[in-house]
Amino acid sequence: MYSKTNSEVLLKNSKDQLESKWILKNIPYDLLFSLLDNSYESLILVDADGIVRFMSQGNEGVTPISVKDSIGRHIKDVRPDSKMIRVLKTGKAEMGRSMVLNHKNRVIARIPLFKNGRIIGVVGKLVFNSPEHLKKFYNRINYLKSQIDYYKGELNRPYGIRYTLDNVIGRSVPIRQAKALARRAAESDSAVLITGESGTGKELFAHSIHEISRRKKNNFVKINCAAIPGELIESELFGYEAGAFTGANKKGKAGKFELAHRGTIFLDEIGDMPLSLQVKLMRVLQEKEIERLGGKPKQIDFRIISATNRNLEELMINKKFRLDLYYRLNVFNINLPSLREIKKDIPEIFKHFLDKLNPGNKQRITTISPEAVKVMLNYSWPGNLRELRNIAERAMILCSGGRIELDDLPISIRQGRNTSLPGNTTGGSLKIIMENTEKKLIQDALEKTDNSRQKAAAMLGIHRTGLYQKMKKYNIS
Q1: Top-level class of domain 136-335
Q2: CATH 1.10.1760 applies to domain 430-473
Q3: Which residues of 293-318 are buried (b: 16+ CB within 10 A; e: fewer)?
Q4: Mean pLDDT of 225-237
Q5: How confident is the model at residue 14 (pLDDT cuts 50, 70, 90)?
Q6: What are the extents of the domains in the chain?
Q7: Count of CB atoms within 10 A of residue 67's CB?
Q8: pLDDT reported for residue 341
Q9: How does the average pLDDT of the chain come out, rounded?
Q10: Which of 164, 229, 449, 477 has the fewest CB atoms found within 10 Å of its own CB?
Q11: What gap in Å lies between CA 302 and CA 288, rounded to an integer?
């Protein structure tokens, strides 16, 4: 195997040095001197004996001896506490060391200089004016790392996709009105509150507003207030510094609000947010400022969209939701219709789900029988779009031909029976079940009487004023 001789290595090094000298000769003196004498690095150059050969003007006033009088003196005479002699002895660079100069902490670097393997001097320079600058630099790196981690997570999550209003299927008046409101909301940065029963597409609308807003090129960050344990939700929203609590990440963590900087944060199930956190959220909305656990306040630019299937007005009456927070979030309200209110759109939405679940129409399902359509229109759909999608998937699996038939639908749909109570009955609370049942009865009565409140009240056996109060309570328009 061919190996270079010592003479060849020396010859190459000599050529490299000649090229470097030629390059330096072609740099104007004023430019080269300005490079060395800039005030940002405060350079000090000592030779192999520790004699100061150069000191930039940025060092003036740091020691009792002037820059001019320091040249030619030993570094220990100029700065008795200097560690540059240590680097001369060890030949090891010392990067990012802290040093007190003029009663101020500075972050410096000491770099050994070599020629032909022999140390010929040391250069010392200022890296950061203070550890605070270094901390900001570190926080910036940590923030970017958090963003990368977030994007990685989104790529691996099925819910990381983006939606637009084109994904909202339906031609009924309530759907057209909701889409029109979403477009208007996207034109501003005002807070948006999306309300409606569970399964009506609140997240889809939140995505859509972001996608047609000026913030569409930045993050859309979602957090489900009901899915995160109460003891963790604060750190999830606002993040934490290193060592903020036992078990915390050693490098700290950026919160969802921080990740949503210049973008949109979507707080789903806002009605389930603990009261203690509602106070902090109120402050964030007022000041546009977040504070990590164990950290300092930080300005954040974000747009907030929240959603709930709960009656926030009732929660406020029961002291479970703050009035001031409600008005902060409810600047622009979009109430999404239930599937019962847009029954004429059901066949089109059902067909859309079939196409989405069966890309390329491998099973060639092209139509739905009139009988199947009729029973779907007579069903009350307590689970709304989510339930309709599940039924479409089941029907597609059972379908043996090119058309969805009545027998492909569950018996509960065919008989018009609800497989579950309307709305959110999680937890089995008797109060919630009774309220959801009452709400459904009112909606059914209004539907059967073509929205005549007088006739609906008579059908329900209550006074018209009582009906008005209950409609307000359950947010029934």
Answers
A1: alpha beta
A2: no
A3: bebeebebebbbbbbbbbbbbbbeee
A4: 78
A5: low
A6: 12-129, 136-335, 339-414, 430-473
A7: 20
A8: 92
A9: 81
A10: 229
A11: 8
**Beta partners for 333?**
193
- The encoded tokens of residue 184 equal 């208007």
Residue found under tokens 């990740």: 259
Give Cβ neighbours of residue 204 (< 8 Å, ≥ 6 apart): 163, 167, 168
Query: In CATH, what class is 12-129?
Result: alpha beta
CA atoms within 13 A of residue 70's CA, in its CB half-sphere: 25
Q: What are the pLDDT digits (tens) for 251-271?
A: 788 888 988 999 999 999 999
Summarised one tens digit per residue, pLDDT across range 379-405 is 989 889 989 998 988 888 888 878 888
Tens-place pLDDT, residues 406-427: 988 888 788 775 544 444 444 4
Output the six-digit token pair for 69.
Answer: 């009088």
- Give the pLDDT of residue 213: 93
pTM: 0.57
For the CA atoms of 85, 88, 89, 95, the dihedral, rounded to the nearest 10 degrees, stands at 90
CATH class for the domain made up of 339-414 = mainly alpha
pLDDT, tens only, 93-134: 888 776 666 556 677 889 999 988 899 999 988 876 555 655
CB 112 within 8 A of CB 119: yes
338: Cβ–Cβ under 8 A, 6 or more apart, which residues?
A: 196, 197, 200, 381, 384, 443
Tens of pLDDT along 144-192?
666 666 555 554 443 344 678 888 899 999 999 999 999 999 999 999 9
Compute the distance between CA of residue 477 and CA of residue 474 in angstroms, rounded to an integer. Answer: 9
